[in-house]
Design goal:
By secondary structure, this protein is of the alpha/beta class. It has 2 domains: 7-222, Rossmann fold (3-Layer(aba) Sandwich), CATH 3.40.50.300; 225-300, Alpha-Beta Plaits (2-Layer Sandwich). The chain is 33% helix and 30% strand. It has helices spanning 47-54, 76-80, 98-108, 114-123, 137-149, 167-182, 194-200, 218-224, 265-273, 287-300; strands at 7-18, 21-32, 36-40, 62-67, 70-71, 83-86, 155-159, 186-191, 203-208, 211-217, 227-233, 247-253, 256-261, 277-283. Strands 6-7-8-3-9-10 form a 6-stranded mixed sheet, sandwiched between helices. Strand 4 and strand 5 (70-71) form a beta hairpin. The longest helix is centred in the middle third of the chain and has 16 residues, at 167-182.
């Protein structure tokens, strides 16, 4: 029976320490049932640690983590039976063929996934008859993804699932995850790619250095309309150049300004049109641009 609660995952004030090293700091988030939830952050931000706690591979130092309304550590066996998990460093049995590996996984789960296994191998263009030791990095990733999807779990927990996949296979995975959500099942996946999360996810949590920077509907990210702006002024920058509200300058050199713009783009274009420019670029921000903006806003907010 599928989970009928409002949130399939509930995390409250979660912390994880390794001696003096703090991997997570009072992290709290909720993953709505049936959603595609993106966990966004740079490598080393605490994403993998959080996912491992959720499936009972790590025990939290403090706080609470519940999946399907059960404690993630004390009920880890029951939870894992209902979860499909893709680790960030999937280890496979090199001596097996892909087919043998999927049959092995099928037997461990009680059987019944043979037809879905064939469909997914065709969907991801995987030659499952070959020995795994001869697989490329992308083939290994596809096999690891298939084993997570094949039993149609209530919750998919995927750690950087598109790593090693070409654009066509990334799109195939995105399509599969959308189908999972339409069936009322839930997807939680980590990523360090802003565009991937924006395109695919209903909800997002942004994490850095073990701290949630922002969490909520993906639409709230889009409404921020944060953009990276680079422009070069003909003849060098005017001495008295002033910047409109919404423009944050990060660097100046040789008549060029680099910065970020927050808000609707029309005022930015109006301001730029009044200057004599040699070149201008307006693009999606890097993650570091995004984090710098969030941290600046938090620092400026009254405590």
């Amino acid at each position: 029976m599928g989970w009928r609660g409002m949130n399939v995952v509930e995390i409250q004030n979660l912390s994880k320490r390794y001696g003096e090293v703090v991997a997570l700091r009072d992290l709290s988030l909720s993953v709505p049932t049936g959603s595609i939830f993106g966990f966004l952050g740079p490598n080393g931000s605490g994403k993998s640690t959080t996912l491992r706690i959720l499936i009972g591979l790590l025990r939290a130092s403090d706080g609470r983590a519940h999946v399907f309304g059960q404690d993630a550590w004390t009920h880890s066996t029951e939870i894992r039976a209902r979860v499909g998990y893709l680790p960030g460093d999937a280890r496979l049995y090199d001596g097996m063929t892909g087919v043998a590996y999927l049959r092995f996984v099928d037997r461990m789960r009680g059987g019944g996934t043979a037809a879905e296994s064939v469909r997914l191998c065709e969907r991801f263009d995987l030659d499952a008859k070959r020995k795994i030791r001869g697989y490329s990095r992308g083939m290994r990733q596809k096999l690891a993804i298939i084993q997570a999807l094949v039993h149609k779990p209530e919750l998919l927990v995927l750690d950087e699932p598109t790593t090693g996949l070409d654009p066509l296979m990334q799109q195939a995975l995105h399509d599969e995850l959308r189908c999972v959500s339409k069936e009322g099942r839930t997807v939680l996946f980590s990523s360090h790619t802003l565009s991937e999360v924006e395109q695919l996810c209903d909800q997002v949590a942004i994490v850095r250095n073990g701290i949630i920077v922002e969490a909520g509907a993906t639409e709230s990210l889009r409404k921020r309309a944060l953009r990276r702006v680079v422009f070069t002024h003909r003849g060098g920058l005017p001495v008295s150049l002033s910047f409109p509200e919404g423009m944050s300058v990060r660097a100046r050199f040789d008549g060029t300004i680099e910065g970020t713009w927050t808000g609707p783009v029309d005022p930015l274009l109006t301001w730029l049109s009044q200057m004599q420019l040699e070149d201008v670029s307006i693009s999606q921000p890097s993650l570091e641009d995004l984090f710098a903006t969030y941290y600046r806003e938090h620092a400026e907010s009254p405590s």
